[in-house]
């Protein structure tokens, strides 16, 4: 990496092209070399849902740097599979002072310092949706470990992008993507994640990786089944993630077969259900907690609106008619309604045209989406897999799919057609209102049970306990 240091030293200012794992590592390496003050911007081809800044430095689109001095140093810090195209685009804009970072070399330089400390047998490192917070399958595993480890022998660490006060005292937090994060990553015995690990992660001998995948629903096609629509870097990461994984957690026979057939994975699968779905065996607790947090009266119906994201990041499709839908629900179910709106994690930085009030609250930043699901009385979504989780509650699910033809034609392919699913579907607000007013609860529950039985679910409310027991044994910690 001497060439990179030399080039940066000779430059008054530099840009890092990239906003992912390799870009993060490159910045941290330059920071270690006391050269990070030369970086004036991160640049991406298209902003999409990237953050506005990284490490306090602005993230800009390629079009926004056209007025920069053409002599500025541009460090291309992406996966190598896309670097040649990026360099060609930069040269087309007459940026010729360009250097490419080889991911293997920059990773080696960083991890050399991290590997000074040995793997610690009692350390478990968690990550939920790449730093989203205390939720998902990892949370429920962590909670059970805290219950079992009475002697406090486990060192539990959580990678987060934002500070949060919801973590139990015994769980340490580390900033996702920081130098300290890589030090924890290099020394933890157990990794628990629910998304693919990025290109910056290297597993060393003696480490054990549990992939607690975030998917559960047999709806949208995933991984190899959508290979033609996936980027080359994603496929490369997915294959590497599956190669590193020692264990996948499965909630159903359906998903077990998916892991075996389309996840580029041939390792062990733990067939115990999904830890996060244990909450549906304790819904009263979730309801009390969520209602107290948002100061909601207990006699209302909480209607959760949780649509999925679009590849185009289009927000115009989120045009639910809250007024008429609320009136229909109140007429059919006989209670006052409060809407809770939850943005998909991929849409967190996008503005939705919702008017929040006492009758419509934003729950997007609540740390544990599963608790909100379990607290809700009715779910309205579109194509989101959260419908499957909510099915364990046996409560009403309505699908509002105003862009049905476009989504099925351009976005994703499904394992089941909408007609095969037990949920009440509609393609317009008027149709949704009519479906709500004519909702047949008995018929719905019969169809729902038939569908859920066909999936071969393993869930019994004990998944967290079974996974935690496995981890305790791996860490040689006795249960008291």
Largest sheet: spatial strand order: 9-8-7-10-11-12-13
What is the strand content?
15-25%
Q: Largest sheet, if any?
A: 7 strands, parallel
Can you tell me the CATH architecture of the largest domain? 3-Layer(aba) Sandwich
Poorly predicted ranges: none
Ends apart, CA distance between termini = 50 Å
Q: Give the helix level as a range of percent.
A: 25-40%
- Give the tally of structural domains: 3
Q: Average pLDDT, to the nearest integer?
A: 92
Please describe the structure with a list of short key phrases separated by commas or semicolons.
single chain, 480 residues, alpha/beta, Rossmann fold, seven-stranded parallel sheet, six-stranded mixed sheet, 16 helices
Structure description:
The protein has 16 helices and 19 strands. The longest helix has 15 residues, at 441-455. It has 480 residues and is of the alpha/beta class. Strand 17 (378-381), helix 12 and strand 18 (397-400) form a beta-alpha-beta unit. The chain has three domains: 2-111, 3-Layer(aba) Sandwich (Rossmann fold); 118-273 and 463-474, CDP-glycerol glycerophosphotransferase, N-terminal domain (Rossmann fold), CATH 3.40.50.11820; 279-455, Rossmann fold. The strands form three sheets. The chain has a seven-stranded parallel sheet, sandwiched between helices. The chain has helices spanning 2-9, 21-32, 83-92, 103-114, 136-148, 179-187, 232-244, 253-262, 283-293, 322-333, 369-375, 386-390, 404-411, 429-437, 441-455, 463-474; strands at residues 14-17, 39-44, 53-54, 57-61, 73-76, 98-100, 120-127, 155-160, 171-175, 188-193, 208-211, 247-250, 268-271, 301-305, 337-341, 360-362, 378-381, 397-400, 424-426. The termini are far apart. The protein is globular.
């Amino acid at each position: 990496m001497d060439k990179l240091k030399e080039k940066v030293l000779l430059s008054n200012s530099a840009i890092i092209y990239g906003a992912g794992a390799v870009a993060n590592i490159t910045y941290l390496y330059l920071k270690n070399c006391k050269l990070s003050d030369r970086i004036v911007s991160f640049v991406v081809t298209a902003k999409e849902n990237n953050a506005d800044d990284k490490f306090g430095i602005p993230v800009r689109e390629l079009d926004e740097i056209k007025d920069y001095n053409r002599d500025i140093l541009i460090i291309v810090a992406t996966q190598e599979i896309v670097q040649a195209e990026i360099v060609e685009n930069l040269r087309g804009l007459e940026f010729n002072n360009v250097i490419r970072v080889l991911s293997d070399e920059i990773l080696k330089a960083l991890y050399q310092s991290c590997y000074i400390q040995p793997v610690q047998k009692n350390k478990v490192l968690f990550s939920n949706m790449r730093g989203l917070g205390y939720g998902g399958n990892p949370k429920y595993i962590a909670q059970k470990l805290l219950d079992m480890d009475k002697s406090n022998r486990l060192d539990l660490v959580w990678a987060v992008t934002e500070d949060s006060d919801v973590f139990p005292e015994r769980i340490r937090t580390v900033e996702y993507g920081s130098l300290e994060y890589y030090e924890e990553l290099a020394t933890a015995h157990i990794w628990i994640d629910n998304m693919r690990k990025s290109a910056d992660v290297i597993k060393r001998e003696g480490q054990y990786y549990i992939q607690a995948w975030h998917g559960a629903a047999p709806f949208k096609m995933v991984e190899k089944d959508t290979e033609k629509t996936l980027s080359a870097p994603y496929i490369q990461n997915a294959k590497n993630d599956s190669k590193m994984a020692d264990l996948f957690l499965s909630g159903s026979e359906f998903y077990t077969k998916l892991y075996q057939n389309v996840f580029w994975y041939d390792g062990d699968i733990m067939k115990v259900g999904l830890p996060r779905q244990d909450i549906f065996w304790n819904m009263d607790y979730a309801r009390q907690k969520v209602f107290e947090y948002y100061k909601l009266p207990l006699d209302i119906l909480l209607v959760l609106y949780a649509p999925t994201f679009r590849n185009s990041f289009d927000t115009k499709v989120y045009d639910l008619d809250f007024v008429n839908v609320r009136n229909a629900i109140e007429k059919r179910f006989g209670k006052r309604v409060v809407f809770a709106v939850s943005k998909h994690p991929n849409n967190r930085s996008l503005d939705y045209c919702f008017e929040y009030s006492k009758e419509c609250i934003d729950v997007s930043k609540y740390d544990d989406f599963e608790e909100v699901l379990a607290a809700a009385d009715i779910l309205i979504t579109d194509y989101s897999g959260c419908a499957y989780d909510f099915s364990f509650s046996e409560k009403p699910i309505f699908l509002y799919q105003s862009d049905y033809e476009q989504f099925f034609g351009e976005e994703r392919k499904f394992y089941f057609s909408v007609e095969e699913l037990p949920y009440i579907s509609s393609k317009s607000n008027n149709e949704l209102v009519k479906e709500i007013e004519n909702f047949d609860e008995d018929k719905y529950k019969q169809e729902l049970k038939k569908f859920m039985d066909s999936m071969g679910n393993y869930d019994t409310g004990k998944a967290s306990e079974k996974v935690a027991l496995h981890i305790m044994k791996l860490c040689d910690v006795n249960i008291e």
